[in-house]
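Exercise 3.2. Students should predict the tertiary structure of the chain below and write it as C-alpha cells, then compare their answer with the key that follows.

Predict this chain's 3D structure.
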Amino acid sequence: MREFLLTRLAAFIGTVLGTALLLFVVLDLLPGSALPPAERVLSLVGTADTWLRLAVTLPLTALALATAAVGGYALHRVAGGPVQRAIATILAVLPPFWLGLLLSLLLGGILKLLPAGGFVPWNNPVGALASLLLPAVALGLPYAGQIALRLAEGEPLALPTILGRCFVALLLAACLVESVFYLPGLGRLVLGAAQQHDLPTLRSGLFALVLVASSGGLIVALSRLGFEPELRR
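Answer key:
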C-alpha cells in the first residue's frame, strides 16, 4: 500500500509541477507574452473569478458523470444484443459539442422544456440545476455509450478507474459545451482567453483545469483502496 500511495502522490505532484513549468515556458514563447517572473507566478494562481467559475464547471462535470454512469449501466441492462450495441455505438461517437447544439435547439428552443442557454445563479438552486441539465446530458450521453460497450464486451471494469477517466475527459470536454450553452464556467473562460490572446487568464485557467483534473484522478486512485483489497497489503 505504501508503494501505491507514494506512486500516486508522485504522479500528482509531477503533473502539477510539470504543468506549471510548461505554462511558464510555452506561453511566454508567444509574441508579446513576456512577463516578469513575479507577474507570471501571480498569473498562474489567477484571480478569484478564475476559481469561482468552478462553481459552474464542477457541478456540470458531476452531473455529466452521473449521466454517463447511470445511462451506460441502464443501456447495458435494458437493451440487448445488436440493438444495445447499435445504440451504444451511435452514442459513443457523438461529439458532445454537436449533441449540445442539437439538444439546445430541440429541447430548449423548440419545445421550451429546459433553458436553451445561460446560467441561473446558485441562490436559486432549482434554476441553477435546470441550467446545467441539458449541458450535462450532452456531455454524459457519449460516455454512457462507451461504458455500455465496455460492459457488453465483458471487459472487467474497476469502478473507480472508469469513473476517474470519465471525470477527466468530461472536465476537458466541458470547455466546448459551456460555450454552446453560454455557461460562465472555467472552460468558457479558457476558450475566451485563448481567442482574445489574454495570456495571464489563459495560464491561470489551464492551470486550474489541470489541478482539478489531477486532484480528481488522485482521489479516484486512492478510492481504489476500498475496492481492491490487494492494494492494501
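Discussion points: The two ends are 6 Å apart (CA to CA). The mean pLDDT is 82.
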